[in-house]
Amino acid sequence: MFDTIITKALEFASQVTNTKIVLVALIAVLAYVLFITKDSLSTFVHVSVENATRTEYYIPKDLNISKGNIENIQQSARSYMNANPRICMIAVYKFVPDHDTFYQGRILVTSGAQVNSKIIPDKYNIKWLPISALSAQMRLILKGKIFTADLKQVLTEYLKPGSEVRDEYLSPVNLNSMYLDGARYVVSVPVISTRVIGYVSVVFDKVPENEVEVLEFIELAKSVAGDTGYYISF
Fold first, then answer.
1. With helix as H, strand as E and coil as C, how does 30-73 read?
2. What order do you get walking across the sheet with 196-204 strand by strand?
3. Is 230 helix (H, G, I), strand (E, B) or coil?
4. What's the mean per-residue pLDDT of the chain?
């Protein structure tokens, strides 16, 4: 009787030990799999969160701009392009979210291209830009200053690997496609109400040849921003 009890006890202990060994082995295998795939998992989580943030949090469902005001912006932009064939595109942006201490990005209110030009705004991924994109532009605009850029210089110098300012010009915008379609020079003018609430980018089909022409382009862009940007302030 006593021998039987001892035998059963030893068998039970053996089973428990075997179970522990199996569990430890499974945990070790799982830990190894997690270790070798940690980079992929991290990338997956980062992309998932970024996509969710962009689609669910950053991009507002309503721009708080009436249909009538958007039509006024489009009409004003069109009149400027008709009168100034050197303007190949106008893009009006609003910072979002409204009435927040820190902007998270800028969203395209509307855009227009010169008639008979190759410029097609929808090609260039300009509808939504995080606040960190093209930080060289944002640094000036958010201070109420004007930003200018020679697209060829941006593409061939600033965005070149190893450039000290490369990070400041990185953005989702397809600048290369825009350049190939005829865009050459950009002037971005802030729209200011009680604070900077957006900006207007006027794209020209040529680079100014001298300082006088630079000032002419800037003054024209300021006029465009004054007339079109007004309608995003209320």
1. HHHHHHHCHHHHHHHHHHHHHHHHHHHHHCCCCCCCCHHHHHHH
2. 128-130, 105-113, 87-96, 196-204, 185-192, 147-150
3. helix
4. 82
More confident position, 128 or 99 = 128
Return the C-alpha torsion angle 207, 213, 215, 217, nearest 10.
Answer: -50
Integer Cα distance of 169 and 149 in angstroms: 10
| Run of H or E including 15 | helix 2-36
Look up the pTM and report it.
0.74
Question: pLDDT per residue over 25-64, tens digit each?
Answer: 566 556 554 555 444 444 444 444 444 444 444 455 557 7
Quickly count: other Cβ atoms within 10 Å of residue 199's Cβ.
27
**What whole-number distance in Å separates Cα of residue 136 and Cα of residue 139?**
5
Q: Is the pLDDT confidence value at 128 over 80?
A: yes
Looking from the CA of 225 toward its CB, the CA atoms found within 13 Å total 28
The phi and psi torsions of 151 (rounded to 5 degrees) equal: -60, -35
* Locus of tokens 């689609």: 55
Report the C-alpha gap between 229 and 189 in whole angstroms: 9
Which of 88, 94, 59 lies closest to 191, judged by CA?
A: 94
Say which DSSP state 193 is in: S
β-bridge partners, 96: 105
Contacts of 125 (CB under 8 A, 6+ apart): 172, 173, 174
The answer to whether 159 and 171 have CB atoms below 8 angstroms apart is no
Q: What phi, psi does 44 have (nearest 5°)?
A: -60, -45
